[in-house]
Design a protein that fits this description.
mainly alpha; Helix Hairpins; 5 helices
Length: 118
């Protein structure tokens, strides 16, 4: 789905900003609740996610540079999902830091890292 299609699905002009996207989504979500209009709501939700997601915002910011340099847009595409192994490690570190903060009333992020001595 392109930005233009997403804006069209939310009934917005091409120059709509983030506030207008949010208001349009809220308005349409009240008008077409998922219980009664599941297909319409799914389309609206996909459009909203397209307009507010990080990869879409990066693509929007880089679009002029891509067009000027004649680069292939697929070269700059990336998968925003975090690998499962990294996610588990990150959650473990967050839990450990939260536990340390709760036990010691000091965040592990506030302490200076220990340097290795030879």
């Amino acid at each position: 789905m392109t930005r233009e299609e997403a804006l069209h699905n939310l009934n917005l002009p091409p120059d709509a900003g983030p506030e207008a996207v949010e208001k349009a989504y809220q308005r349409l979500a009240r008008r077409y609740p998922p219980e009664f209009h599941p297909d319409k709501f799914r389309t609206m939700d996909e459009s909203y996610r397209q307009l507010t997601s990080l990869p879409a915002m990066i693509e929007k910011l880089l679009a002029p540079a891509i067009e000027d340099s004649k680069l292939e847009p697929a070269l700059l595409a990336f998968d925003p999902l975090v690998p499962e192994a990294n996610l588990e490690q990150a959650l473990y570190e967050i839990r450990a830091a939260a536990l340390a903060q709760a036990l010691w009333k000091q965040s592990s992020f506030d302490r200076a890292p220990k340097s290795k001595q030879k």
